[in-house]
Amino acid sequence: MPVRKPPTRARSKTKAAVQVERRPEKAAPRLGPGEYLPDPTEGITRVEDLPQPKLIRIDRNFKQQACPRCGHLAYRDRVYTRRLHDVGDLDAGRPRELELIYSQHCCSRCHRYFNADTSDLAPPFSHYTHRVTPCPHRKVRVSLAVRTVVEDALPYQPASWRLWRDFRVFVPWATIQNWVEAGGKKGDRPR
Fold first, then answer.
1. Comparing C-alpha atoms, which of 80, 86, 69 is closest to residue 132?
2. What are the C-alpha distances in Å from 95 to residues 6, 78, 145?
3. pLDDT at residue 175, as a whole number
4. DSSP letters of 99-141?
5. pLDDT interval class at 94 (50, 70, 90)
6. Domain regions of the chain by residue span
7. Among candidates 45, 52, 104, 110, which has minimal Cα distance to 80?
8. Spatial separation of the C-alpha atoms in residues 161 and 155, rounded to whole Å
9. What is the mean pLDDT of residues 133-155?
10. CA 128 to CA 167: how far, in whole Å?
11. Rounded (10°) CA dihedral 175, 181, 187, 188
12. Disulfide: which of 5, 6, 23, 74 matches 105 by Cβ 3.0-4.6 Å?
C-alpha cells in the first residue's frame, strides 16, 4: 500500500511576518577585563590539603600489535595502569591526572616483550607528562619547572609553589632540583 504524504498548506504572509518580528532583547552586559577572584588554595602549605585531581582515563589497551623487532603480530599478555601528573585545569582550580591503561604484548616468534607505545604522553618511567618534564630528546623545549627556576632565578621551593599557582601541577622542589642539575648533562655524556 503506497504511503500518502500529508497535503502541504500555503503559508499566509501575515504568519511569516509575525515570525520575523522579534521583541527587542535586553542589552548584554559588556565584558571587561574581568573580576579578580582570590586563589582558594592560597596560604596552603601542606601538599595533602591541595584539591583532589581531576582524573582523565586514556586507553592504550590493544588486543594485537606488531612486534618492533620482527614485525610479527603479537597478542596482548598483560594490562598495566600508570598515573601521570599533567598541567592542571585553571578554570576548575584542580590538578589533572592521566590514568593511562596500556597493554604489554609478547611476540611468539622472537619471544620478546614490549609495551604499547605511550611515548607521546610521557618519557619512560616518568610520573609527569611531556608538558611538565624536561625531555632529553627534545632540545628546543624546556620544561615549565626548569624554565621557572632558570629564567626567573627562583629558588627551588618557591618555584614548586609557583608551578602550582600558575599551572595547577605540583612538582616537589627536590624533583625540580634534579631536573635543573641534570639539564644538559645526560644528553651530552659520551657512551
1. 86
2. 57, 29, 15
3. 86
4. EEEEEEEE-TTT--EEEPP-TTTS-TT-SB-TTTS--TT-SS-
5. confident
6. 48-124, 132-185
7. 104
8. 11
9. 69
10. 13
11. -170
12. 74
- Cell numbers at residue 140, please? 628546543
Question: Cell numbers of 134, please?
Answer: 624536561
List CB contacts of 38: < 8 A, sequence separation 6 or more. none
**Which helix (H) or strand (E) covers residue 81, if one does?**
strand 73-89
How far is it between the farthest Cα atoms of the chain? 86
Q: What pLDDT, on a 0 to 100 scale, did the predictor assign at position 128?
A: 86
What is the predicted pLDDT for the residue at 78? 95
Which amino acid is present at 157? Q
Phi, psi of 81, deg, nearest 5 = -125, 140
Please give the grid coordinates belonging to residue 58. 586514556
pLDDT band (50, 70, 90) for residue 126:
confident
- The size of the chain, in residues, is 191
Cβ proximity of 101 and 128 under 8 Å: no
Determine the Cα–Cα distance for residues 19 and 67; give it in Å rounded to an integer.
64
* Mean pLDDT across the chain: 77
Q: Is the pLDDT of residue 2 over 70?
A: no
58 and 121 in contact (C-beta within 8 Å)?
yes
Rounded distance, CA 50 to CA 76, Å? 38
> What pLDDT, on the 0 to 100 scale, is given for residue 145?
75
